């Protein structure tokens, strides 16, 4: 905003403008920085507000651990946040939405665990995303009552009649350099992302719903932040409509958030990424408003931090994740996995039946990592986690596949039929056209999340078995 300098001598105005332009040029790299440019804490004497943001975990509490180089996890996140807190105790931690990925009892336990982890890290607010809504209003209401994190949504109406404790915005006070700043935090979810109509709820057009809220907040706050659970194009539109928003945290289905930072007029837009792989860290050097009609004068540095191996796992969150695994075991979720007939209408027979006729191949398999795949889960204490077990046994999601190690020990590990398919017909007929394997078979489990360094030709050499000699001398 433009301030009134009419009583200041012209020479001082010229000097001030020169200094302002010089500082602006120095900080231009900071607008979109991935640890580029200078730290505004050092280049400016203005107070600095630090905002840390995450979102779209989509059910990922931690990397599966099946390979090196995986990013993310709440345990690494807390270690990073603890490091950032050593520089500033008054971090503002924000969650953009979509803690769960699917629906079901395991996702409910995940969401409870995720919110408890966010609480341990002192998050201020969680914006409601469409996958949060998919968990059901009653369950969300329960979570909103037991969580110490504010649930917010500025464009979902009809919530007042339920036990769902959601606010249209929150105002966070931060004291820095003996000055108290008030930060207004709003949140929206794009109506385009809501696939199923939810009774008594209306998801409004964000442009319409934000207008009265921003009008109310403008003279009460020094900084306005929007958590925009929407695709970048929609967030840009909101920025164009409401230049009073200093910061929009956005991005839906964004894999590389550092590539999407941008500035629209006076509004900075930063992206969060997916599955908890990254943490956004924003430093805002802020000049307080002199009147309610002023805009803030500020400089912003945006940093995207990958949660890689340089961050150790926090013991507090590791303990919480251990409790999560124990709950999966206690509730016997492995026995509740949805099962169906295999599309081929054939059945799995198990590793032992394969060994009867293919003994040399079976012995070779026993020396590969596929054979010990289930034991890796036992060692990691994840053997009761249905999402993990599915890629470490034969046919978990089918009636004839793995149930438990006691009932179906022959289905442990990534066995013959994990790659070649159900072998019941081959067992009965010794058909020669059984079991062709392609890269698509492997990529079901060796996907970018579980096996980011997967190369078919390289990995194939680790497990391919020798050819068998033909029987009968022909």
Structure commentary:
With 474 residues, the chain is an alpha/beta fold. It contains 17 helices and 15 strands. Residues 354-421 form the Cytochrome c-552/4 domain. It holds the Pfam family Cytochrome_C554. One of its GO terms (cellular component) is outer membrane-bounded periplasmic space. This is 5'-nucleotidase/2',3'-cyclic phosphodiesterase and related esterases.
Shape: elongated
Radius of gyration (CA) equals 27 Å
CATH superfamily of the largest domain: Metallo-dependent phosphatases
Query: Unreliable runs, pLDDT <50, ≥5 residues?
Result: 1-38, 40-44
Q: How are strands sequenced across the largest beta sheet? A: 6-4-3-2-1-14-15
- Predict the CATH topology of the largest domain: Purple Acid Phosphatase, chain A, domain 2
Average pLDDT: 85
The main pleated sheet reads as: 7 strands, mixed
List the helices and strands and how they pair.
Layout (H helix, E strand, L loop, with lengths): L9 H17 L13 H4 L4 E7 L19 H12 L6 E4 L9 H16 L4 E3 L2 H5 L2 H10 L3 E3 L3 E2 L8 E2 L1 E8 L2 E11 L12 E2 L2 H12 L5 E7 L2 H10 L5 E4 L11 E3 L2 E5 L6 E10 L9 E10 L8 H16 L20 H7 L1 H8 L6 H8 L5 H4 L26 H5 L3 H6 L9 H5 L12 H8 L11
Parallel strand pairs: 1-2, 2-3, 3-4, 4-6, 8-10, 10-11, 11-13
Antiparallel strand pairs: 1-14, 5-9, 7-8, 12-13, 14-15
InterPro entries: 5_nucleotidase/apyrase (IPR006179), Cyt_c-552/4 (IPR023155), Metallo-depent_PP-like (IPR029052), Multihaem_cyt_sf (IPR036280)
GO molecular function, one term: hydrolase activity
Protein name: 5'-nucleotidase/2',3'-cyclic phosphodiesterase and related esterases
């Amino acid at each position: 905003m433009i301030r009134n300098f009419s009583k200041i001598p012209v020479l001082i105005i010229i000097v001030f403008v020169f200094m302002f332009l010089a500082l602006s040029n120095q900080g231009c790299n900071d607008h979109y920085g991935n640890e580029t440019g200078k730290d505004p804490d050092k280049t400016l004497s203005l107070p600095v507000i630090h905002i840390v943001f995450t979102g779209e975990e989509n059910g990922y509490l931690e990397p599966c651990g099946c390979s090196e180089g995986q990013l993310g996890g709440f345990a690494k996140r807390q270690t990073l946040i603890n490091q950032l807190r050593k520089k500033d105790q008054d971090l503002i931690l924000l969650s953009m939405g979509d803690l769960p990925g699917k629906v079901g009892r395991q996702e409910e336990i995940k969401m409870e665990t995720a919110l408890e982890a966010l609480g341990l890290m002192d998050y201020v607010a969680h914006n409601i995303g469409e996958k949060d809504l998919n968990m059901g209003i009653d369950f969300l209401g329960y979570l909103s009552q037991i969580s110490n994190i504010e649930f917010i949504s500025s464009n979902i109406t009809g919530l007042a009649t339920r036990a769902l404790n959601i606010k249209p915005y929150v105002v966070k006070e931060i004291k820095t350099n003996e000055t108290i700043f008030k930060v207004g935090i709003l949140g929206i979810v794009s109506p385009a992302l809501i696939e199923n109509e939810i009774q008594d709820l209306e998801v409004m057009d964000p442009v319409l719903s934000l207008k009265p809220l921003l009008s109310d907040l403008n003279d009460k706050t020094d900084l306005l932040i929007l958590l925009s659970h929407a695709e970048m194009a929609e967030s840009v539109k909101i920025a164009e409509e409401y230049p009073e928003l200093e910061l929009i945290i956005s991005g839906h289905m964004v894999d590389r958030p550092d590539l999407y930072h941008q500035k629209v007029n006076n509004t900075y837009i930063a992206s969060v990424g997916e599955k908890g792989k990254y943490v956004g860290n924003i430093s805002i050097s802020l000049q307080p408003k002199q009147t309610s009609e002023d805009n803030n004068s500020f400089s912003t540095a945006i940093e995207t931090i990958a949660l890689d191996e340089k961050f150790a796992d926090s013991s507090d969150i590791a303990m919480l994740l251990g409790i999560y695994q124990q709950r999966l075991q206690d509730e016997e979720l492995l026995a509740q996995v949805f099962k169906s007939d295999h599309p081929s209408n054939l059945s799995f027979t198990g590793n032992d039946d394969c060994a009867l006729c293919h003994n040399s191949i079976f012995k070779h398999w026993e020396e590969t990592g596929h054979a010990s795949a289930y034991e890796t889960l036992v060692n990691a204490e994840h053997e009761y986690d249905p999402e993990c077990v599915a890629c470490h046994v034969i046919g978990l999601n089918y009636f004839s596949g793995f149930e438990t190690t006691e009932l179906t020990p022959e289905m442990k590990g990534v066995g013959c039929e994990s790659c070649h398919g159900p072998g019941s017909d081959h067992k009965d007929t010794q058909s020669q056209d059984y079991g062709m394997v392609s890269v698509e078979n492997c990529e079901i489990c060796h996907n970018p999340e579980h096996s980011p360094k997967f190369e078919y030709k390289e990995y194939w050499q680790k497990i391919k078995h020798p050819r068998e000699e033909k029987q009968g001398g022909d």
